[in-house]
Specification:
six-stranded antiparallel beta sheet, seven-stranded mixed beta sheet, globular, 476 residues, alpha/beta, single chain, 17 helices
């Protein structure tokens, strides 16, 4: 039996508290009515534990013996000290109690585990809480249906939302302040057939982490980007899908450019980091404060540098180009898969190709790649089917994710950004004027590192896995 690959549902794990699991040396893995099947340590009879659990909960316990080292691994995996008991010291499922205390303990746990989002989801039989860590959702708690609605109401009260409105989506914010850590939690509710789904996004303000040199640029990319961002006017666009780290790159850029002699204005949705010395404006489309309206006002505020959270429509694109033509430096994001794709996207939005060529200083595409946990990654031979899928990868062995206590048994620890940086020059500007999409030979001639090249290098260095490499190759 492969215990590493076996998935034990959270509601089964919650049948025992962490203290009970450690005391009895038992890990439940299946339940059939009043019979609970548990893994137990070889050499222990389990009789006393079974009798006590029968008295406590009325269960019949069937024990499957496993080696001591496997038992220890299961206990560490499913009952990590302090991780799952912070908010629920007594319950087998999440013990909500006072909703406010549970909520802030949940946020504290997410903060400690570097989670970006918390998802609260209602279903027919149960409700669950998941956290997004390193871009992937992992289930943490199960909530009784009777406790779910009061918890959602408590969240809506804290976020200043209408608790009587359950038919329409709502958005709000909760201020978090604990032990000197201050940030906002963005709240979004969505009506589903079983109740309101809630997503909490942690807008942490750890500005000290926003250093360009630490984001993942290669030495050449870093030099090219620093040279472009100090231009007196023009437009720099960061490209990529949602969740690829574009905003972090922009904030790190503003932090580097933030000087006493410059007037920096931003319009954002949402404001994720607050930067002292930067004039930041929150987008409020419901009252007419759109990207376009803000840009018009910015031009009357004598700006040096303008940051737009996103270019998402023709009006915003036109205003951004006009602003850069009048002597301002514009930084923004745009949803394209490649750096050169920004040229086609602006043209599709109605910006004339010659204006794109005259204003665009640089386009940067980026992605976030999960890093293998350095404590448990293992070397393995590349399988034949993988080699056929990756014919260009000249390697016999690679590192694969395993999972340990330090990485919460995911096999990964943190993410790193990879970049494709294209600096516009006369030849590339001419290609933009002509609307040329295929510029592969121009990119190759300039020896520009693509996203695929960057991830392939990380794979060969043993920093990431095949699972992270394949999607990047398939998207090119």
């Amino acid at each position: 039996m492969d215990l590493k690959a076996q998935h034990i549902p959270t509601e089964i794990i919650r049948l025992l508290t962490a203290s009970e699991a450690v005391e009895y040396r038992l890990v439940p893995y299946r339940r059939e009515e009043e019979t609970v099947y548990c893994y137990g340590q070889q050499g222990d009879t389990g009789t006393t534990a079974a009798e006590e659990l029968a008295v406590l909960y009325g269960w019949r316990v069937v024990v499957t013996p496993i080696p001591a080292h496997e038992m220890q691994r299961l206990l560490l995996r499913h009952y990590r000290p302090g991780a799952r008991t912070a908010s629920m010291p007594q319950g087998r499922t999440a013990d909500i109690g006072q909703g406010r205390q549970f909520l802030f303990a949940l946020v504290a746990e997410a903060l400690r585990d570097n989670a970006s989002d918390i998802h609260l989801e209602p279903y027919r039989e149960r409700c669950r809480i998941r956290m997004r860590i390193d871009g992937k959702l992992a289930e943490r708690y199960v909530v009784e249906r009777t406790q779910y609605a009061p918890l959602v109401n408590q969240i809506k009260i804290l976020a200043d939302l209408d608790i009587s409105e359950k038919r329409l989506p709502q958005d709000g914010r909760i201020g978090y302040d604990s032990h000197g850590e201050k940030f906002d939690v963005r709240v979004s509710t969505l009506p589903t057939i079983y109740g309101e789904k809630v997503v909490l996004r942690l807008l942490t303000r750890r500005v000290e982490l926003l250093e360009l040199a630490n984001l993942g640029f290669s030495e050449r990319q870093y030099e090219d980007y620093c040279r472009a961002m100090t231009r007196p006017f023009g437009m720099v666009l960061i490209c990529g899908p949602t969740g690829s780290g574009k905003s972090t790159t922009l904030y790190a850029t503003l932090r580097r450019l933030n000087a006493l002699t410059d007037n920096i204005l931003t319009i954002e949705d949402p404001i994720e980091y607050t930067l002292e010395g930067v004039n930041q404006v929150q987008l409020k489309e419901e009252i007419g404060l759109t990207y376009t309206a803000a840009l018009r006002t910015f031009l009357r505020q004598d700006p040096d540098i303008i940051m737009l959270g996103e270019i998402r429509d023709a009006q915003t694109a036109e205003m951004a180009v006009r602003s850069s033509l009048t002597g301002h430096m514009i930084f923004s994001t745009i949803h394209t898969n490649t750096a050169w794709g920004a040229v086609a996207r602006l043209t599709d939005m109605g910006v004339h190709p010659y204006l794109v060529a005259d204003t665009l200083v640089m386009t940067v595409a980026q992605r976030l790649v999960r890093m293998l946990c350095p404590h448990c990654k293992q070397q393995a031979e590349i399988a034949d089917d993988v080699r056929r899928m990756l014919p260009d990868i000249d390697a016999e062995r690679h590192y694969r994710p395993v999972g340990c206590e330090r990485c919460f048994y995911t096999g990964y620890a943190g993410r790193r950004a990879v970049y494709e940086v294209i600096t516009m020059d006369d030849e590339l500007a001419a290609a933009a004027r002509q609307g040329r999409a295929d510029i592969a030979h121009l990119i190759a001639h300039r020896k520009i590192t693509s996203l695929k090249d960057a991830v392939t290098l990380m794979f060969r260095q043993g920093l990431t896995s095949i699972e992270e490499l394949i999607p990047m190759i398939n998207s090119h």
